[in-house]
Prior knowledge:
About 20% of the residues lie in helices and about 25% in strands. By secondary structure, the chain is an alpha+beta fold. It folds into 3 domains: about 20-120, Phosphorylase Kinase, domain 1; about 125-300, Transferase(Phosphotransferase) domain 1 (Transferase(Phosphotransferase), domain 1, Orthogonal Bundle); about 375-455, Immunoglobulins (Immunoglobulin-like). A hairpin with a 4-residue loop joins β10 and β11.
Amino acid sequence: MTDNDFTQRPADALPAGYRFEEFEIQDVLDASNDNIVYRAQDHQLGRQVAIREFLPRTLTIRSDSQRLMPRSKQDQPAFRAGLDGFIHEARQLACLNHPNVVQILRFWTYNETAYAATPVYSGMSLADLLQHHPERINEAWLRRMLPMLCGALAALHEKGFIHCRLSLNAIQIQDNGLPLLLEFGALRQASENGEVNKMLLHPGFTPLEQYSDDVDNPPGPWTDIYSLGAILYTLITGNRPPTSVARSIQDNCEPLTQNPPEGYSPTLLAAIDRSLALRPEDRPQSIEEFITLAGIALNDTGLSQPVHQPGSMLIPIEQSEPEESAVDPWWKAHRTALQTAAGVVVGLVAGALIFGRSSSSPVSQSPSTPGETVTSSAKTAPAASAPSRIYLRVKDGDEFMVNGKVQKMPNPVNGYVTLQLTPGQYEITVRNGEQSRSVTLTVDKPGTWLLDPQP
């Protein structure tokens, strides 16, 4: 799921050329203690994908036939519990459609283990960003990233999932600036007998309840909130907090508000300190509570109620007032509300701004290629005005029409194409074969709109 410049090929990785029907393994993108991520060619659709294989090295060995076998009988229960969790995770994520959550394209079991195919996401982890570009991290950057990240976590929690594995390596900043949640192996965090899978713990980022088998203190949203606080603490200070187990004996984690780092507001620092409370009941109990403490506007997180029209998901995003900046004026939309349907779509426009403040940043780039301004087919058009930017959700094989006129399809980015419309009324129809879905849109002032036409 990641695209690193170089990853040493593990000895137990599947060989290049290995085939799963239409998928052909090419090389290794990433490897951890319990997963290997391969780059593969999808020969059926003519595209590259990433394939994640469940492979816990401490529990299994690979045979000459490429099948996984437990190292001993004692390892069999732990391996089975981890495999069940991997399968459960893939099935649940396949039902979750969010631009900041990894997308599952296909899932299957083979070689006595399981595999999940996803898009190839190019970028760097927060760990790499902190190591190689710490100068990019400041409060303004965090406040641009947090709405998207919190929106993704809120979408998970709304579905009843807990990530349980948040760390600097579990969040990727893609080349287009969007943060992406990775490493979901702990969505089902405990086995049936209540034993915690210790392979899934990240010292410094894991709260105390994940080290314990105490049924009175189960993981919940507050678990991810502790990990989120630890991530922010690390990004701000450069050092991760002491482990929660050590803190339970002698808490030497200095609150950020006691010695405030320069350039950070007391509101944000206080929210982080609260998130790092050892006792779950002392932390914010929901993402909504955390963003309130951090001083993040509710609308900016994508957690507010959606704006509905029949047959569509239609979300207006108001433009902010002009200000002096070296950035193109359109980027100023990141200061305004990005509302979503059921907390699913968040941060699509603001994502490209994560590196936008640094003009020399090599990863700062537009999230999409704008389409041509559509003017001739408008039913009504007031006096000349700045065109509005429209993000239109499309799928493979789709074509779309504006007021009955077929438009040239721009290159989709993250499942959306971009076009610009002058003020007027429009009927936008997306067609794929004999199936079509449409939405009626009135553009009465400059702004940005997100459209997901429904049948």
